[in-house]
Records
---
Amino acid sequence: MSITAVRIDGRLIHGQVANLWTTKLGISRIMVVDDSVTTNAIEKSGLKLATPAGVKLSILSIEKAAANILAGKYDSQRLLIIAKKPDRLLKLVELGVPIKKINVGNMSQSDESKSITRSINVLEEDIENFKQLNEKGVELVSQMVPSDREENFIGLLKQHI
C-alpha cells in the first residue's frame, strides 16, 4: 500500500507540510482530498506553488481519490494524504481505503468551534466524525511537527468535550 501518512490540516500545504513532513517521511506525492478544492482554480494554483520541488501533487475529489488508491495507482509512491476536515477521511475509509492512522494537525478556530489544543479547534460534526473514525479502528494522533511527541487525539478530545 502506498499510503505513508494521512494528515488533517485546514491549511492543506504550507511550511510544516511542504518542508518538514515531506522530508521526514520521504514523500513522493501529496494528495489533497477535498471536493470543493478540486473546483477552485485559485486554491489549486496556490497548492501547486506550495508543493516542494520533486514532489508530485494530486488534488482529487473524495470519490476519485478512493478509486485511484484502490486501483493501486500510487503503489510505487510514498503518498501523503491531506484533508481539511475529518469527514473527507471518514468517507475514504467508508469507500474502502485502508487508512490506519490519521495525524490531526491544524484546524482553524471559528465562533462555533471548541478548542482542543492551541491549533486544533473542532465543530460538533468534527467530533462525531472523529468518533466514527475511532470506532472503525483508525488510530488518531496529534503531532504538529515531526519533532513533537505524538499524542493520542481521542484522549485529548475526551478531555475537552
---
Amino acid sequence: MVDEDPPTIRSVAVSPDDAVDAFVYSQENPGEAVLRVTPPFHGRMRARIHVYRVDDTHLTGAVHLSPDDVIEDDVVEAYPRLGDELEDAPPDETERTRKRHAEAVEAWQERAREAIVETVSIETADGARRVEVKQIG
C-alpha cells in the first residue's frame, strides 16, 4: 500500500551511522541534519540523512526525524561540547584540546550507535504518533 499520508507508516528503517552522523553534524556545523522520510509513504520506510538550512517539509511532504529523538536521551546529553573545553584552555593548549575533543566525539559516536531507540514519534495531519525504529546497516 502506498500513500501520501504519514499515518501509513508503521516502522522506520534507520542506519545507526546516519543517526549519529546527523546528530554530530548539527552540533558542529551550520545548518541542520535530520533523518528524512519522503512520500510516497508505505508501512516500512527508510530514513536517510538530509542536511538543510531551510525546512521544506511543507513543500515536499517529507517527514523529518530529529537525530536527538532517535538516540537515547542520556547519550544525547553526554555529547562532548567543544566550547566548554576551549573556554578553559590556555591559547597554547587549544590544538591539544581540539584533538581531545575529536577523540571524545569518536568515543561518543561508538556509544551512540548502540543507543538507538525502539520507537519514535512522527508528525501527521492527525497529530503525533509512535512508530517502530528498525536498525539497518
---
Amino acid sequence: MKDQEHIRQLVETQLSESPYFVVDVYVSGSRTTPKVTITLDGDNGIGIDTCADISRDVDKRIEEEGLFPKGYVLEVSSPGIDQPLKLVRQYPKHIGRQVRIHLKDGVTREGKLEAVDNENITFQEEIVNKANKKKKELVTATVAILDIDKAFVLVSFK
C-alpha cells in the first residue's frame, strides 16, 4: 500500500502541468516480483505514445529510488472500454455518449450524458410512457455523483 501511494505521488507530480491524470495505481503480485499497474487518462483521452513516454519516466524514477530492488513489472495504460469511470474528471469528455449508471441503492439507469459538474451528472433517459406503454419519452435526469457506484460508457457499433 505504501508503494502504491508513493508511485501515485511520483506520477501525479510528473503529470501536474499536463492534461493527463492518474486514474488508478495498483501494485500486485509477490514482494519478489511485483506488478505495478498505472492507469492514466486525459481530458481529451491519452494515446499509446504518451503512455509509453510516461512509462519510461516512471520506470526511471522507480529505479533511481530503488523501490523494487529485486525487479518488477510495470504496465502503464489508458482505461479500457470495459473499465468504469472512476473520477469526475473522466466524465466531461463523454458528454453526448450513452452511459450506464449503477447506483449505490442497486438501481441501474441509462441515458445520453448531457452535463457534468463536481456534484452531479445530467443525462437524457428514455422512459416508458405510463399512459401508453408502447410509447417512450426522453426525460432529463440528474444524479448525484456520490450516489454512483459505477458508471460505464456504452459503445455503439451503429
